[in-house]
Amino acid sequence: MENLLDMTISEMRALLKKREITAVELASFYLKRIERYDNDVMAYLNVTEDKAHEMARIADRKMEQGEDGPLLGIPFGIKDIFCTKGIETTCASQILKGFMPPYDATVIKKLKDASFVHLGKLNMDEFAMGSSTENSSFHITKNPWDLTRIPGGSSGGPAAAVAAGLCAAALGTDTGGSIRQPAGLCGVVGMKPTYGRVSRYGLIAFASSLDQVGPLTRNVSDCAIVMNEIAGFDSMDSTSIPQPVPNYTENLGKDIAGLRIGIPKEYYIDGMDSHVKKAMEESLSIFEKQGAILIDISLPHTEYAVATYCVIGTAEASSNLARYDGVKYGLRTEGKDIADMYKKTRLKGFGKEVKRRIILGTFVLSSGYYDAYYRKAGKVRTLIRRDFDEAFKSCDILITPVSPTTAFRIGEKTEDPLTMYLSDMFTIPSSLAGLPALSLPCGFDDNSLPIGLQIIGRPLDEALMMQAAYVFESVKNIEKIPGAFRKEYLL
């Protein structure tokens, strides 16, 4: 049998369909890998082994009865930010330890309807607040390419699990880069769809005007397959867009001759890692050789994006996290009265970074400061969106780096929050504008650490982004699994 680690979801489905492997055997393959390797990577918070075997047996019965489907029997890891009925959901926070949701998030329900296999819940920065997964209340996830380095964040667990071959695909969330940045640093594909393209119902909120759900996969075709299953209107989400969803796999393999690619000068800056700069130059040359047209453009308000994001994101976090008070669910620390109980519960339950953002958010929303900060940030956000609107008059997609550097060492930036926030400087602007954006591997630095390339598209034009990404991926053919994690388990 070919190495399962090198297979796409479609290739795994072909084996399952021909009964050359069963869903139970496929789930066991990944569970054995988790048992062997996750003590090193620490991507999982909770491995749902019994649930995985149960779901795999159901998938096998469905296939015996002639049922088919693109995700039938495919093992997934799920970021621990989605409500999963009867499975602990913590957001990597002590304040939600032991919380068992009574319902499934819409995207989880869709994956269940597609008969996926749930391997477990994956680690993250607490309440998705961070760029390194060092802010988890439980443990730090490590980058499979170098276990002394961070995997990115906040979807560091999903990115590391996919990179190490501890699941076939994963589901994450992206607020300011939380899918794309870890995907770039771990050498996998990650996509943030257009805001409203995928339902947020059952997603535990960080910043509601920014949060978006998306896949992390080994390659572009797998990303398209997962998007086909999770995208679409949901009446349970008031921000969901009532637009038809295209078949994202249809244009994969079509050429990109004549495609107009915008190169924003604000993303190619002094101080960028020389290896990142070189990889981007080589990548743009590949697109040009495939018939694309490169156009220099400007997004002049980019320099204000990180500050704008910090104001909007912390304000919305302050509002959303007010619900965690020890009254209805999660951690409760008794006090002399209800105010004291609130204080003690939040003091014990929230980590340092979450407290920092709640304090900042409460400040910018407070009387006398709302107009000076939050209202002004909203106006700058509009200007950033208009920059993109203007750029797309002459371009079809934009291409930028995902991150100015490759993965940094664990502990290197924990005492410097501002430097940590700047890790997302290339991903934040498209989040503020609500645009779709995709990260895919484009090379390595001298330490064999992955470098990510970002493709930004027009609203609801995820298909064109994936078409371009697929062409690049087919030419570049980047290694996806680190050598130390390539060991195969016999079934």
Summarize this entry quickly.
With 491 residues, the chain is α/β, with parallel strands linked by helices. It is 37% helix and 13% strand. The protein has an eleven-stranded mixed sheet, sandwiched between helices.
Low-confidence stretches: none
- Look at the helices and sheets and give the structural class: alpha/beta
Q: Ends: how far apart?
A: 10 Å
Main CATH class: Alpha Beta
Q: Could you describe the largest sheet, including whether it forms a barrel?
A: 11 strands, mixed
SSE ordering: HHEHEHEHEHEEHEHEHHHHEHHEEH
Describe the structure.
By secondary structure, the protein is α/β, with parallel strands linked by helices. It has one domain: Amidase signature (AS) enzymes, CATH 3.90.1300.10. The protein is built from 15 helices and eleven strands. An eleven-stranded mixed β-sheet has the order 1-3-2-4-6-5-10-11-9-7-8, with helices on both faces. Helix 9 packs across helix 11 and helix 9 crosses helix 12. It is globular, with a radius of gyration of 21 Å. The model has no long low-confidence stretch (mean pLDDT 95).
Which helices and strands occur, and which strands form pairs?
Elements: H1 9-17, H2 23-41, E1 44-47, H3 49-64, E2 75-79, H4 106-113, E3 117-122, H5 156-163, E4 169-174, H6 180-186, E5 189-192, E6 212-217, H7 220-230, E7 260-264, H8 274-289, E8 293-297, H9 305-320, H10 338-349, H11 352-365, H12 371-391, E9 397-401, H13 417-421, H14 428-432, E10 437-444, E11 450-457, H15 462-476
Parallel strand pairs: 2-3, 2-4, 7-8, 7-9
Antiparallel strand pairs: 1-3, 4-6, 5-6, 5-10, 9-11, 10-11
Helix pairs in contact: 2-3, 5-6, 7-15, 9-11, 9-12
